[in-house]
């Protein structure tokens, strides 16, 4: 194995200087879950491991005056899951993370590490994309914000340049009447990564019709997917069972699905139909949509 130096700076600028000078030879370490596994299997051979946990700015979790929830790069899944701030701002994040891996992994792994790893079989990118969250990137060249939907480019590929550090994830507040749901489908064990994940956001207008809607499918292909033309069709319509069926079928026809050890491409496509419908019904219920229309439906 190549010589590898391990450093744990306490100053953010020092981290940026190391990434600027070492480029792809430097690997930032958040929780270290992924880094440890890939090192052990000889899949990466960095010259420099830069631990982030000692940099105070990266441990911030706050709601800013703009209403944005800011989750710093060294915040663990478990800290997000248990945070009262998160539970009042974006409860779906806590709900989703409670279903990720097991408590031992969640105590160690971070949300930012999960996004940067960009494993297609992940839960957070799907939910964060549906919430309209952004990734904050910082380098000596400056700061930029990239929507989560554009950050994950494909399997293990992100929009991050080697000299950039992800400092935080920024989650905007949703309107109070919005209903949000995330459903995870596992095929192997309760602790497994998703074979499929569907996030739905539904905002009703005063007449009980759809003012805004988002649907993101994760773990079906190599990155989270939404189908804007299908969502466009739904705006202004009542979210009844007929529309749920139309949207679920359209998504099943449009998203890319892959075959792997968790499911075949065909089975995934069938499950997209089922889980898009279920996630929509649950989001609608949480938005009070069916109750306004006098109907009743179970997810
Ligand atoms: C048994 C097991 C089960 C799991 N189950 C699930 C599951 O059900 N769902 C799911 O979504 N995930 C699952 N995971 C993944 C887990 O949630 C972690 O998010 C993930 O492994 C990485 O988190 P980490 O903080 O340890 O990242 P690290 O290992 O520290 O880093 C991961 C990658 O991101 C880079 N990186 C980290 N921080 C930064 C930064 N600030 N800026 C730039 N680059 C950075 C690193 O260089 C590395 O390339 C599972 C993992 C295990 C081991």
Please give a structural write-up.
- 36% of the residues lie in helices and 22% in strands.
- The chain is built from 13 helices and 13 strands.
- The chain has a five-stranded antiparallel beta sheet with strand order 4-5-10-6-7.
- The chain is globular.
- The relative contact order is 0.11.
- The C terminus is likely disordered.
- Flavin-adenine dinucleotide binds next to strand 2, helix 2, helix 7 and strand 10.
Summary keywords:
299 residues, alpha+beta, Uridine Diphospho-n-acetylenolpyruvylglucosamine Reductase, domain 3, Enolase-like, domain 1, 2 domains, 5-stranded antiparallel beta sheet, 3-stranded parallel beta sheet, 13 helices, 13 strands, 22% strand, globular, binds flavin-adenine dinucleotide
Summarize the biggest pleated sheet. 5 strands, antiparallel
**What would CATH call the architecture of the largest domain?**
2-Layer Sandwich
Low-confidence stretches: 291-298
**Roughly what percent helix?**
25-40%
| Pattern of helices and strands | EHEHEEEHHHHHHEEHEEEEEEHHHH
Strand order of the largest sheet: 4-5-10-6-7
The small-molecule ligands in this entry are: flavin-adenine dinucleotide
How many helices? The count is 13
Rg is: 20 Å
Structural class: alpha+beta
Distance between the termini: 52 Å
Mean pLDDT: 94
